[in-house]
């Protein structure tokens, strides 16, 4: 039942929120941290382990650490490209542990994408795509979830100008299918109701403000509804996130990153969790980034990390490791 935590960017708040999350949950949820222990806050009670199987017994008294040497020390707020290989390896090691059955889930602390590209030619825009590559799967889906809302961006880390061309019926169909399967399997919703956002203002206003809704989104939705999917939309993105609208669906599939992430980070920044759907293992993460401005100052709120660990543990409990 041990959850592997990858360290994330050492100059960000990742190490401190992991340490704080262990303080909050270490007696309840076995976990281990993969990274360079010199990057943890000085006061952290940590203990080196050689093997994931030792984590459960250590975790009640110290944060179990699979210690790796990243080379230079970390300066809060100043990412060092020299850490990039270590950061990437920690994610890969976490995946290996989960896939080998030594851990039940992976919870990733935030990475600074630019430092990984500069330091190691990291070929992926984020964890989501890297994890898909490690797992050898083509279609994965990013979901951000909090008590009040679940959102899924169909396109993720691409420039806004490229969204319309990237938004193919195939991509949207895979996104909706994976989302529905996960709502049933991981979130225990027998008949998921999925809202689908339009791409354009007012969901295209009958074609007067853009054509993607009529040409692509609505026909795909009709086809999936004929198969038994409960889909609502295409909805105007500006009016689908207020409380009464949210009561009408279990998840919202959105067309691009900010359409999905702005509402959830506005509603519940502290409680939001990023969960990757469609992987053959469980991966969660806090919804926020590296927060360089507050790193090393003891100001970071660990709530989202705690929520991410809880969600990973709940998913493992409900469905078992994949
Ligand atoms: N899963 C991941 O690896 C993610 C990584 N990132 C990366 O993080 C870097 C910084 O991104 P930003 O857009 O600045 O977002 P950010 O989430 O790091 O920071 C946004 C604002 O929220 C505050 N904040 C964030 N987390 C906080 C916490 N736990 N407690 C208190 N305040 C907190 C920050 O101080 C800042 O004011 C980028 O390189 C981005 O790619 C961003 C999101 C997720
Ligand atoms: N904006 C969300 C984000 O950057 C998380 O991406 P990932 O690293 O989880 O793929």
Automatic annotation (TrEMBL):
It catalyses: 4-(phosphooxy)-L-threonine + NAD(+) = 3-amino-2-oxopropyl phosphate + CO2 + NADH. The gene is pdxA. Transmembrane segments: none annotated. GO terms for molecular function: 4-hydroxythreonine-4-phosphate dehydrogenase activity; cobalt ion binding; magnesium ion binding; NAD binding; zinc ion binding. It holds the Pfam family PdxA. HAMAP family: PdxA (MF_00536). Catalyzes the NAD(P)-dependent oxidation of 4-(phosphooxy)-L-threonine (HTP) into 2-amino-3-oxo-4-(phosphooxy)butyric acid which spontaneously decarboxylates to form 3-amino-2-oxopropyl phosphate (AHAP). The active site is located at the dimer interface. GO terms for cellular component: cytoplasm. This is 4-hydroxythreonine-4-phosphate dehydrogenase. A divalent metal cation binds at residues 157, 202, 257. Keywords: Cobalt, Cytoplasm, Magnesium, Metal-binding, NAD, NADP, Oxidoreductase, Pyridoxine biosynthesis, Zinc. SUPFAM superfamilies: Isocitrate/Isopropylmalate dehydrogenase-like. Pathway: Cofactor biosynthesis; pyridoxine 5'-phosphate biosynthesis; pyridoxine 5'-phosphate from D-erythrose 4-phosphate: step 4/5. Belongs to the PdxA family. Binds 1 divalent metal cation per subunit. Can use ions such as Zn(2+), Mg(2+) or Co(2+). One of its GO terms (biological process) is pyridoxal phosphate biosynthetic process. Its EC number is 1.1.1.262. The keyword NAD applies. Its main location: cytoplasm. InterPro entries: PdxA, PdxA_fam. It is found in: Cytoplasm. It is an enzyme of class 1 (oxidoreductase).
